[in-house]
Design brief:
Length: about 325
Amino acid sequence: MVGRHLKYLMLFFLCYGFSAHAQYFASRNAWKKERKEVYFGVGISNFLGDLGGLNKVGTHYSYADIEFKLTKPSVTLGYRYRFSKNWASSTDFTFLQVAGDDKLTQEPFRHNRNLNFKSNIFELVTRIEYGFSFSKHGNRYQIKKTMSRRYHAFSSFYYFTVGIGAFYYNPQEYLGGNWYSVRQYSLEGQGLPGGPNQFSLVSVCIPMGLGAKFTIQKKWTVGIEYIFRKTFTDYIDGVSRTYYDKALLLQYKGPTAVALADPSLGLIPGATSPNADGTGAQRGNPKDKDSYMTLQVKIGYLIPSKRRGRITKAKF
């Protein structure tokens, strides 16, 4: 359902963008008045990973697996530079929160696993925007504030965007009234004998999305933007591989680590026990990397150009 709505939204932006582009605007260089902009964004964020999701198998990492009950806040500060009518670049610093909880799904394996997490994400990205735009500006001599002038003081910019960035995260798991660091307790044996390497708390992301921006009275902008992030880590939720040997985990990290690693409900006998060949039982799926997304409303301020218009003196 969500994927279908996003397809319709993208189709709307594309069709409307071409229509607006066909209209063009009175001054071919009007976009230069909107070249530099600082902006603030506020909105919501969500996550796709190993935990929680829809009440059936086969939905991992698809939009159908989004758990809307765990929608969290996000905020952004950024700078945009528009270097042509259709092209712009932006640099964003974003803080957002993500979470997941197996208690919210009735899919048997994940529900029995009973894992949960939350994490703050601090992200810095640079993106390129490509848009189809039209712009209407006020009456040339601005003799009076007519309805027409107020309308023509409005402009808009519809765009697709893609970029690259880095982000910091630190998954925590809730148990017995407290939050514990997943990395600190090596819950899948990271850095321990026979276990995988310890995961990094910094990773790379590829942001991609679409948005619409409207300029009001030449100085202010308001817009809406959806950005999806493809990442290259499977540890944003702290879950990726197999259950580690409980005896070794107890030896190296203590009883708290054992309880955090396997809080399963016991509804599926042997689900967290080692396989017949001695390998650990599946805890997560390392083949599919985690991802997250934001939907924000953005308010911007257009930085006035230092260039002054040429003044022509009247001769009488």
